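Exercise 3.2. Students should predict the tertiary structure of the chain below and write it as C-alpha cells, then compare their answer with the key that follows.

Predict this chain's 3D structure.
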Amino acid sequence: MKHLIAKITLAVGFLLAVFPALGAGKITFEASSPLTVALGEPVRVEFALNANPDEGTFKAPSFEGFDVIAGPAESRGQSVQILNGSMTQSINYTITYVLLPQNAGNVTIGAAEIAVDGTVYRTEPLPIEVVNEGDGGQRRQQPGTAPGGDGRESDMQSRIGADDILLRAVVSQSSVYKNEPLHVAFKLYTRVPYVNIVPESMPSFNGFWSQDLSDPNTAQIGRETYNGKVYETRVLFDYLLYPQQVGQLAIDPIEMTVVAQVVVQNRNRDPFFGGGHDIYNVPRKVKSQRATIEVKPLPAGAPSSFNGAVGSFTMETDFPTEHFAANSGATCTVRIAGTGNLTFVQAPKLSLPSSFEQYNVKTTESINPSVSGISGYRQFEYPFIARAEGTYELEPVEFTYFDLRRRQYVTLQSKPVTLEVTPDANGGSSGVVMQGGRGMSKEEVRMLGQDIRFIKLGNAQLRRERVPFLFSGVYWGILCGVLALFTAVYAALRKRIRESQNVVLMRGKRANKVAVQRFRTAKRYMEEQNRHAFYEEMLRALWGYMSDKFNIPVANLTKENVREELHKRGVSAELAQHFTAIISQCDEAQYSPVASTQMSDVYSEGVDLISRIEAVIKR
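Answer key:
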C-alpha cells in the first residue's frame, strides 16, 4: 500500500511539473464588456488571463463614470486534454466587476495591469456607450410580439438603425507628396451582431502603387467611438499606398452586403417557462465614402543624383582594397537603408575609368512593409575587372532623396577612393596599351588585330551549299505541328473563359473548397475551446456551402428550400433531414449555454455530411 501511495505521489508531482510547461504559450490579457448599456442597469466587466498571474499584481482601472457595486470576483480554472498521446493544458484566470453607470454618454474603462513571471501585461482601453432609454434610445421588440405578414422584411430592416452598420475608408492623411506613403484601411463599424460579409466590389487605387498589408491569419478587431457612438470594428482591407501622380487622386468606394442578425421573442410564449426567440438574418448593403487625396509635386531644384527616393535613408559603401592586380575581379557595394519608397530606389551611378570592365549590377533587398511605410534596405553590388595597371581616382558615389521631415533634398556622398592596380600577378598581359597615360577602352581593345586580314593563296575550293530549310519537308512538318498546338491551346482557353464567365458554375465548383476552409477555422476554434465562435463558423460553413452550391443568397436560404434543392439533385431525404438537424444543433448550442452537444461530434457530423452530399451531387 505504501508503494502504491508513493507511486501516485510521484505521478502527481510529475504532472504538476509538466503542466506549466505544456501550458506555456502566448499570454493574453483582455477586457470584455457589452458594447452599450442602459442608464441605471448594471454592466459586467471581465478581465481574462490565460495564465497563472503573480500574486497581488493585478491593478484595476479607476472605473471613472461608474459605481462599483460588486467585485472583484476571482475565478480560476484549468483543463487538460490528451489527444493521440499529446497532452495540452489551458488555464483561465478571470476577474469580474459589476458596475453601475452614473450618467449617459460615452465612458472609457482604462487599462488594467497584471504580471506573469515578472512581465507586466495591460488590457486595451474599453469604450462603453451608456444610453438613456427614456430619451428614445434603441428600438426594442415588445414582449410577446413578433413580426409577421408581408411586412416582415421591412420590419426586420427597421430594427437595424441607419448608423448601426457602417463601412468607412480610414485614410492616414489627406495631403501628401508624390511617393510619400499613405495608409488606408477599410473598416466595418457594427453595433449589431452579424453572421456574414459578402463583398460586392474590391478596392481599386488608380494613380497609386499599392502594397497589401492584410494578414489572413490575424483578424484586426477592436472597439472605437465614432460620431458619439461606440462600435465594434473590423479591418476588412488594409493597404499602404504610394501616389504616382500629382493632383487630386480619389480612392473609390467599395460596397458589400452585411448579413446582420435580429433576435425577437417568439409569439408562442409559454406563460410558465417563458417564450423562445426567433433569429432572422437581415442583409444590409453598405458603402464606404469616396476619399480624395491631394498629391503635391516634389520641390523644384532636385540634384542630378535624385532618382525619386522619398523618405529617410542612410548609405553605406564598401570599396575594394587599395591594391589589387590587373585582370582580377573586384566589387563595389552600396547599401541604401531606411524607411520610405524603398521599392523604387534605384542603383546610384558608379563612375569607373574607361579601362575598367564593368558588369551588370546585382541587387539584394530586405523589404518590411508596415502601416508607417516600407523599411529595410537595398544593396547594390558593382562587379568589375581592371584591365590596365596604374593609379586611379574613383569619383564619390552620390545618392539623393527627399526628406519628408525637413521638406528638402538630402544628398549622401561616399568618400573619394584611390585604387592602385598592380601588374598581373600571373605574368600575363592585359592586352591594354597605355596611351598618353590612360588605358584604352574596351571597344578599342576589340579592334586590335581586326583591321588587317591575311590574303589566302592557292586554288579556291568550292562546294555545294545545303538545301535551304525554308519550304523544306521539315519546315512544313514543324509549321503544321505549331498550328495544331495553337488550335488546341486556343480551344482550351476558350473553354476556360466560358467557364469563368459562368458565375453560377464557378460558385458551385468552389463550394466544397470554401466549406473545407471554414471547417478548418471551426476546428481551430474547437481546439481553443471557443464555443460561440466554433458554432458560428460551423453555421457559416454549412449555410455557405448550400448558398454557393445552389446559387441562392445566404439571406434567402431556409431549411425548407435547402431540402427541396437537395431532393432535386438526388440527395436522399435522410441526408437532407440530417443537415436540418445539424443546423438546429448549432443554433441551439450557440445561444444556449446549457446545451449538451459536443463540439467534436458536431464537427465530425458536419464534415461527413458535406462529403456525402458532394459525392451524390457530383455523380
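Discussion points: The CA atoms of residues 120 and 460 lie 96 Å apart. The chain has five domains: 2-135, 160-296, 306-447, 472-496, 503-617.
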